[in-house]
Amino acid sequence: MNRGRGWRNVDKMPRRFVMALWCAVVLLAVALVPVSAQDPDDAPVPETILEAEVGFVRQEGEVEGYDGQPQFYQQLDVIISEGPRQGEVVVVENGPLPEVNAQHYRPGDRLFLRENLDPTASTAYVIEGRSRWRSLALITLVFVGAVVLVARWRSLPSLLGLVLSFVVLLYYILPRLAAGANPLLTILLGALLIVPASFYLAHGLSIKTSVAIVGTAISLALTLVLAQVFVRGAGLTGYASEEAAFLQTQTSQVLNIRDLLIAGIIVGVLGVLDDVTIAQASTVQELRRANAQLGTWELFRRAMRVGRDHIASVVNTLVLVYAGASLPLLLLLRTSPLPLAYMLSQEIIAEEVVRTMVASIGLLAAVPITTWLAAIAVVRLPVRQPSGAGSIRGERNTLGTEMSGAEEGPAAPGTPDTSKKG
Fold first, then answer.
1. 10-residue block means of pLDDT along the chain (422 residues)?
2. Of 57, 65, 141, 360, which one has the greatest count of Cβ atoms within 10 A?
3. Contact assessment for residue 259 and residue 182, using Cβ atoms and an 8 Å cutoff
4. How far is CA 279 from CA 15, 90, 191, 415, in A?
5. Whose CA is closest to 303, among 291, 287, 325, 317?
């Protein structure tokens, strides 16, 4: 009679209250982020950036560049779209300096202008690049629409968890990093805010989700240790990208770029761990519901069969994602006449190798860790079992599928058999 009481009690917990409380904790933590006051003498001089639209192409062709090579050139009439000079038409030049990625603008294209501080310049504004925020907003709306179309009402808590993750990232993690806080501690505290909120919102308040959170936390700790060991063992400094060097020169704070690299590895693996840990915890739970006689070791063994298939596809996906992001580097590695060992030793390549391998090892470790924790949890807690013999037609089992007639038990003695005509 008490079968399944443990899980039903979990289902009856005040989920909305718990989720609302955790969201309040996240927002409170974000609101209490200390913002360091920057010395006015060190503050960068603000630049005037304005959005504009190309109205007319006055001139287009090739001119001789500073290096003597032909350079694409345009003279444009652009209409300023914001600020005190909104609606004013100004003349700008596109391509007076040699560029690898020369842009070709047409009437109707939107771009950003920066005020030209050179008093000897022939134009008052310089083109900074295309305006792409409208395209980004459109593809974001398409993504949200696709999620809602496929997942329907289940998509709403998932999207809310995604928003909370970005809130923590933009208003907690990044401000603390900019203020000179320890990157590793900041990322761990940020993960402590992101993981429970996003997991419970996306998957509900249950033992399954709680086990996945614990498995994720242990896997993140292991990934952090591995990242520390291999980043320092490979002698990586974090300055492989131009952004790191530029960031160090643009801030008055002393930033630990190497720890920032390690923190980036943790953030990258955090999202993939959600998929792995939830899938393993759910697999163990359903195996236990299907057969309550399975013990901890048998549950672990059977769920690991599923986990091995899952992790093979996830690791392959992760490697391909990193490879796609580093395709120019791979092409350079393929076409360079220099020795392979020398090319692999370059920090810009070694950094991506370490990032990919450490993240993959963290994912591999998450599978047995979460599976074992879930097996222990479901064995010690009562679970609902399938109805089994004697189920009436139309009854649904724990997987949500209707019981077929073949699953009906034999008729009791003395009960007429109504399954046959006549």
1. 43 51 59 50 63 88 73 86 85 73 85 76 76 92 91 81 85 82 85 85 84 92 92 86 74 76 87 86 90 89 88 78 79 83 86 88 91 91 49 37 39 46 42
2. 360
3. yes
4. 21, 57, 20, 45
5. 287
Are 273 and 366 contacting, i.e. CB atoms less than 8 angstroms apart?
A: yes
Residues 70, 213: one domain? Answer: no
Tell the residue number behind the tokens 């596109």, with chain if given. Answer: 94
Same domain as 234, residue 176: yes
Residue with tokens 């009481």: 5
The 10s digit of each residue's pLDDT in 21-32 is: 556 565 555 555
Claim to verify: residue 224 and residue 318 sit in the same structural domain: yes
How many domains in the chain? 2
Kind and range of the H or E run holding 58: strand 49-64
Distance CA 173, CA 33 (A): 9
- Residue 115 belongs to a domain with what CATH number? 2.40.50
Tokens of 181: 């806080």
| Residue range of the domain that includes 58 | 49-131
Which pair of structure tokens corresponds to residue 137?
A: 């907003």
Please check whether residues 265 and 218 belong to one and the same domain.
yes
